[in-house]
Amino acid sequence: MALAVWFLLPLAPLVMWLFADRWAYPAPAPEAWGFDGVRAALAQGAAAAFMQSLGLGLAVSAVATPLGVLAARALTYYRVPFPAFVNAVLFAPLALPAFAAAFGLNVLLLRLHIPPAAGVMLILAVYALPYTTYTMRVAYGAHDLGFEEEARSLGASRRQVLLRVHLPLLAPALARSAFLAFLVGWSDYVITLLVGGGSMVTVPMLVASAASGTGNDAAVAVLSVAAILPPLILLLGVGLFARKPQGDPA
Question: Mind telling me which residue stretches traverse the membrane in this protein (predicted)?
Answer without folding.
Answer: 50-72, 84-105, 117-140, 161-183, 189-208, 220-242
